[in-house]
Amino acid sequence: MGAGLQDRLCRPPTTAPAGIVHLGLGAFFRAHGAVYVAEAGGWGIIGVSLQSPDTRDRLRPQGWAYTALELVPEGDRPRVMTVLCDVLVAPENPQAVLDAMAAPDTHIVSLTVTEKGYCHEPATGRLNRDHPRIVHDLAHPLPQSAPGFLVRALAMRRAAGRPPFTVLCCDNLPENGRVLRGVVLELAGLIDPALADWIAAEGAFPSTMVDRIVPAITPADLDRLEATCGYRDEAPVLHEPFRQWVIEDRFCGPRPAFEAAGAQLVADVTPYEHMKLRMLNGAHSSLAYLGYLAGHQTIADTMADPVFTGFVRSLWHDEIIPTLTPPAGQDLGDYAKALALRFANPAIRHRTWQIAMDGSQKLPQRVLATIAEARAAGRRVPRLTLAVAAWMRYVSGRDERGAEIDVRDPLAARLAAMWSDDPACTVREFLSLTELFPSALRKDAGFAADLTGALRALIQQGARAAAAGYAHG
Q1: Helices and strands in the chain: count of H runs, count of E runs
Q2: Is the pTM above the cut of 0.70?
Q3: 471: pLDDT confidence band, cut at 50, 70 and 90?
Q4: Which of 135, 239, 300, 336 would be a feasible disulfide site paired with 316, CB 3.0-4.6 Å?
Q5: What are 266-288's pLDDT values in tens digits?
Q6: 276 to each of 35, 249, 279, 314, 398, how far by Cα in Å?
Q7: How many CB atoms lie under 10 A from the CB of residue 198?
Q8: What contacts 364, CB < 8 A, 6 or more positions away?
Q9: Cα dist. 451→36, 288, 380, 389 in Å?
Q10: CB 247 within 8 A of CB 210
Q11: What one-character-per-residue DSSP string does 86-106 give?
C-alpha cells in the first residue's frame, strides 16, 4: 500500500481564512463548489456533516485534503484539493456548528443537503411544519435541520450586532434561493417574528444552478486511485470533465471571485435552472427508473442500449424542449447533444439505483412540473408520463423479475402500500399524493388515463419494450 495522502502532501490543507461554512459536505460539493472556491483563491471552507461522522472521519487523518478524480475515456486525471479548513459533525456538537456560522469571518453559508433536507413540501415549496426535525427545532435552541441551523445562527448574528451571511443554496430545487428564503422566513417567524423581519430586510438568498455528474465511490475506485497515484486516499470524489455554476448576483457581504473560476454571475438564473432541471435531471431520472427496471446498472449502460438512446432523444426534442425558453445564446438542440455525450461517457459509472433515490422529493421539479406545463398548453407528453409510471413501478419494491428493490425514499413504506395489481387503482392512489402531484395533474382525467396506460404497458411488456413503443409514439 502506498503512503497516505497527508504524508504525500507534507503541508497544511489551506492557509486561507474560513469565510464559508458548507452544510452537507457530500461528494457533489467537494467535486463542484469546493473546486470553484479553490480556484477563486483566498477563501477556505468549514464543512458540516448534518448526519454522519463518516466524511469527517475519513478526511481528518488526511488533514482535510482529498483527491478530485476527473473521469475521461482516455484515463483518470487526479487533482488534490486543499480548500477545507475543518469538518464539523452537527449531531455531535450542534453548538460548534452554530458558532462557526455566527463567526465574524463567515460571510457565506452554502448548502447541498438534497431536496429532502429542506423540510419543505415539494409541491408547494412551503415549510413542512409537521416534519420531525422542524417540530424539534421549534422547541429546542440547538437545531437538527438545515433550516433550523440557518435560523438559529442568523439569530446569533443579529444578537451580536453582526450582519447576516449570504445563504447560497446549491441543490436541485427550482428557484432554490427563493424557496429556501421562504422556508427560513417561515421558520424564523414561528420562533421570533422580529428575526424574520431582519432576515427579510438584510439577508440574501441567491438562486443558483449547479451541474456536474458525480458518481458514487466504490472500494474498487479507492484501489484504482492508489494504483494510479501512488498514495491512499480514503475520501476522494469522482466527477466528469464538464462543470457549470450559474449564480444570481445577489450577495449581502463579501464573496469569492467565483467568475474568475468560470462561474456565471447573472441577474436571473431561471432559464438556466429550467434547462438543467428538465433536460439533465428530468432525463436522468427517466433513464434511471426505466433503465433500472430493464436491468441496466448505470446511465452509461442504459445509453448504450439503442432503445433508450432513441427514447431520451425523443423525450428531449418532442416533450421537454417545447416547454423551455433558452438562456441567451444557448441552443437547446446543442445542449441535448452534449447531454447525450455526457450520459454515454463509459468512464462515468453513475448507478441508476443512486439516481433513483428520493424520487418523491425529486420528481415534482424534475418531471411533474414539465408535464403540468405541457398539458396546460394542450400537449400530451407520453414519454415523461412513462417515466412517472416507471417510478411508480420502482417504488413498489419489486422489479420485473420479482426481485426486491432497495428503495431509498422518505415515503418508501407509504408508496409501496399504494401499489396493487390494478393499474387504474394504483394510479388513483398515487394521484392522491397532494405533496407530490400539482393540483392540475391530480384533477386531469386525461393525464390519469395516460398514466394508467403507461403503467399497464410497463407491467405487460416490461420497461425496455414499453420504452421502445414510446420512443417514437
Answers
A1: 24, 13
A2: yes
A3: confident
A4: 336
A5: 999 999 999 999 999 999 999 99
A6: 20, 19, 5, 17, 30
A7: 17
A8: 122, 123, 436, 437, 438
A9: 42, 18, 11, 6
A10: no
A11: EEEETTT-HHHHHHHHHSTT-
